[in-house]
Amino acid sequence: MDLEEDPGKDGETMIIQSTTNPKTKFTRACIGEATLALLHEEEYSKVRVSDIVKKAGVARASFYKYYDSPYAALSDYIQILISEYMEDTLGMQLRDKFMERDHILYSLQYFDRYADCFLTLARRGLHGIMLEGVNRFMEENIQTARKVSVYELYSYAGGMLNTFLKWEQEGKKDSAEDVADMLYDLYSYEKRAKVQNT
Closest Cα partner for 65 from 25, 20, 15? Predict the structure, then answer.
């Protein structure tokens, strides 16, 4: 098991133990889901570890085995969702199609399954958790595989996240396909090159 430290909200240090053990992943997911459920009812500042472990059905020691705060639990839960997304994109051979329409569309459709999670975090002002998650994904999975500027990655990640949240908040008035087309037009290297050459 690897122990990771990340800077958290307001200088909190997030301690996250990462592992591929399915039982451990299940326990961590239960803790994350319980924390989100509590955020439905109250502000983040009122969420207590004792309430989280009771709702998750785990021992307090289990919580502290993996995390030092509810913020760390939520951050890890986002990483679990992103890890599952990565597994799916690999199986669908979409991982190498970064910034392509099919990948953008799949991203919207995949994360739509977890819209309640993202909207709850946004409603409670915890945008940093989501942004840290997508930035970490970009740095660890895209930047290392492609020669893309970190600024371009952050612009794309932030733009995708904000667009996704707005799309969900507006009740998905536009289809996922239409939103993917708009984003592809915005971020497409080929389209930008054609525009510059005309």
Answer: 15
Report the CATH fold assignment for 1-77. Tetracycline Repressor; domain 2 (1.10.357)
For range 155-162, the mean pLDDT: 91
- Looking at residues 68-72, what average pLDDT do you find? 96
CA–CA separation, 90 and 104 (whole Å):
14
E strands, 32-128, are none
What is the model's pTM? Answer: 0.81
Mutual angle of helices 101-112 and 70-91, in 10-degree steps: 130
CA angle 71, 75, 78 (to 5 degrees): 145
- Residue (of 134, 160, 16) closest to 78 by Cα position: 134
Cβ–Cβ < 8 Å for 160, 104 = yes
Closest C-alpha to 127, from 183, 79, 75: 75
Q: Are 11 and 4 in contact (CB under 8 A)?
A: no
Residue ranges per domain, the chain?
A: 1-77, 92-198
Distance CA 24, CA 102 (A): 32
Q: Summarize pLDDT for 160-173 with one digit per residue, the tens.
A: 999 999 999 999 99
Q: Which amino acid does the sequence have at 89?
A: T
Q: Which long-range contacts (CB under 8 A, 24 or more apart) does 148-151 make?
A: 148/98
